[in-house]
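WP5 quarterly update. Target: ROK family protein. Source organism: Subdoligranulum variabile DSM 15176. Length: 433 aa.
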Amino acid sequence: MILQVYITVNHQNQQKQSRNIAIYPQKFLIRLTFLLWLGKMKVFYIDFTFKKLKGLYMKKLSLPPTERRRLTRNQIYQYIYKAPGCSKQEIADSLNFSMPTVHQNLNELTQAGLVRIDGVGESTGGRRPLQLTINENAHFSVGISVTDDHFRIIAANLRLDEIAYQKYPHPHCNNMKEMGNFLAADLENFLNRFGLNREKLLGVGIALPAIFNADRTCVVAAPTLNLRDQSIRPLICSIPYPVSVCNDATSGGYAEWYVQQDSDCMAYISLEGGVGGAILMNGVPYTGLNGRSGEFGHICVQPEGLSCKCGLRGCLEAYCSSDRISTDLGISVEQFFAGLEAGNLAYQTLWKDYLRHLASALATIRMVFDCRIVLGGYVAQYLTPFLKELRGLTASRDPFDEEAEYISLCHYPKHAVPLGAALHFINLFVEEL
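Structure tokens (predicted):
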């Protein structure tokens, strides 16, 4: 049984809205989730779960008596998260904590099921030390990628490993309320189908192919969804769990940064039905003054060229979206590349044009940001045989680099967007535990 409750309280610049109270009588579980807007509508998601057992409120990990204690425990957890296989002594030495402090906090984390023993290390003269790692399956997060005709839903554990995945078709949605209704039904079906424990669910990240306003409360434009000037509240309020909504290309960039954190700045380009992107600086997206940074799909690569869905002509998206090599030809992307490999001359001509315009955009991005560039999205999984050629084309437009090895392919060619959406709540859990 789900009981929807909407309460709004206004006080000066602060607003609280209670979204949902989810009641599961068979599990004696009550979950209260609400949003907190502070100042200029900056969104925080707060989730309380109460489990009634013999009249008592049961909890696994107790709240430390002081913020300092919480920070100490969190530092230890984050250290183990980033250095799996570490020992108690390594934690104490690296964080400059006493062994009793490390031991006490590890007991709490272990009893809560958040940290586990993962073998033994090499002996340095005495007893072999126990190796510690996080329990990656203690919790999970859900990420959802939204397109005009389907949802891609994925569940990922604390290491961003895929637990479950399903694609759900849906009809065209005229507004956020309709989308929310379809999405809520498919999400519950997904959780039930794969037997996922809702008590372990951290939250649901939703990635939209959309441009948001500065405070991310409204979709300004989503051409591929045929939506404009839509509040995201109806979408958020349809989901009875903590929710985060963001741009799809930014989500893909998050996922790639998670596995490729080896530089200060990264440009990510998503080549799908739309072409988008993100700029990440130290893992934080640069959104620009109006939240429109990274709209690489609307770089002009051919003045007065092909028409784009945005209404202009010559945009990168018009030349390098997956639609150009699939929908526009009445075939699938897989069929295009199969024909290309088989020597189809028309496909070869089209593909050379695709690479030429993509290289033009990549050179422009390199000139502006002087950073590494990661190519992602559905098309990226087919680019491996063409990477050398693409680098050469880009280098010919770059006066400072002869090989363009700053261009690389993504780690998650198929599910980067929903995984990046799920990563929001994983990061939040790790940082705020």
